[in-house]
Amino acid sequence: MERIKVTTYFDCTQTGTTSYRKIKANSHITSTEQWDFSRNQQRNFETILQCVSLRATPEDITTPLCTTSEDGMKHWTFSFSVSHDGSFATENDKTGLLKESVNGVPMIVGLSETYKEGFLMPYLIATGENSNINFELIEDRNQ
């Protein structure tokens, strides 16, 4: 079993907002604009998980945590497990196929993200100096 940590500059807050503009009575969402914002955060989270699901089924998914670095930039971090070891491995990179799968996938911007320069391309970039998503193998139970 492998565990992978995801870090991105895209707002991928897991809001749970999924049904079409259904504003619940006990919800903090009281307007269509708030619903759209919350749904778009959830969509970004779902997009990353769908990319992962192209090669393996993510399990034990943690809730994305938003933190702010010393330079004031926000980033979101979460992790997941996959039961098949090497699902994302290339010859030189244990998450290489995952990086290939996400490159160029569109994301929604204009939410809570703060990093703009070199980032505001509205799609995932997993390699190079302008990458806006990172995958790190943090646990490999077979090693």
Question: Can you characterise this structure?
Answer:
- The chain is an alpha+beta fold and 143 residues long.
- It has a single domain (2-20, 32-140), classed as Alpha-Beta Plaits (2-Layer Sandwich).
- It has 2 helices and 4 strands, in the order βαββαβ.
- It has a 4-stranded antiparallel β-sheet with strand order 2-3-1-4, with no helix packed on it.
- The model has no long low-confidence stretch (mean pLDDT 89).
Tally of helical runs: 2
Strand content: 15-25%
Mean pLDDT: 89
CATH classification, class level:
Alpha Beta
Summarize the helices and strands and which ones pair or pack.
Blueprint: E1 2-8, H1 32-53, E2 65-68, E3 74-82, H2 96-102, E4 133-140
Antiparallel strand pairs: 1-3, 1-4, 2-3
Descriptive terms for the model:
143 residues; alpha+beta; Alpha-Beta Plaits; four-stranded antiparallel β-sheet; 4 strands; 20% helix; globular
Quick synopsis:
The protein has about 140 residues and is of the alpha+beta class. Helix content is about 20%, strand content about 20%.
